[in-house]
Amino acid sequence: MAYSKTEKNIQHIAEPVIKAAGCSLYDVEYVKEGGIWFLRIYIDNEDENVSLDTCETVSRALSEVLDREDPITDAYYLEVSSPGIERKLKTPEHFMRYLGSVIDVGLYRAASGAKQLTGVLKEYKDGILVLETENGSMEIPQKETTVVHLHFDF
């Protein structure tokens, strides 16, 4: 998935603030929902266990920087959170980090009779996911996916 110009700009602004809090930037989303703009910043750390206090600290610091830099002209709500246990996988770094993990893949068009697949991410190269499912190995172009995220059994 490609990031918009605004999202790329926010990444550049947000990374030093997030790094100063001992975390890393996992993802940025700038989306309009119900007529309201949301800037969602997902932060992570080594043990993938970001606390609410850390999110609040980053949110306050980032809010100050965003007010000063003013990279977005529209009114928006800033949300800072962990990507969670069912985190979305969007970038090559995300896919490489979770090789060998069970993932859920949503598809625009059905493959093997389904628009939702679950399997082990065996490989990721040049925008192609290699997924090992109960029906065998499949190659899925990332551009044909609606969403990819880590699978979690409740």
UniProtKB/TrEMBL annotation:
Subcellular localization(s) per the UniProt record: Cytoplasm
Official protein name in the record: Ribosome maturation factor RimP
GO biological process assignments: ribosomal small subunit assembly; translation
Any one of the GO CC terms: cytosol
Pfam families in UniProt: DUF150_C, RimP_N
Keyword tags: Cytoplasm, Ribosome biogenesis
Gene3D superfamilies: Ribosome maturation factor RimP, C-terminal domain (2.30.30.180), RimP-like superfamily, N-terminal (3.30.300.70)
Organism, as annotated: Ructibacterium gallinarum
Top-level taxon of the source organism: Bacteria
Domain Ribosome maturation factor RimP N-terminal: 13-86
Ribosome maturation factor RimP C-terminal domain sequence ranges: 89-147
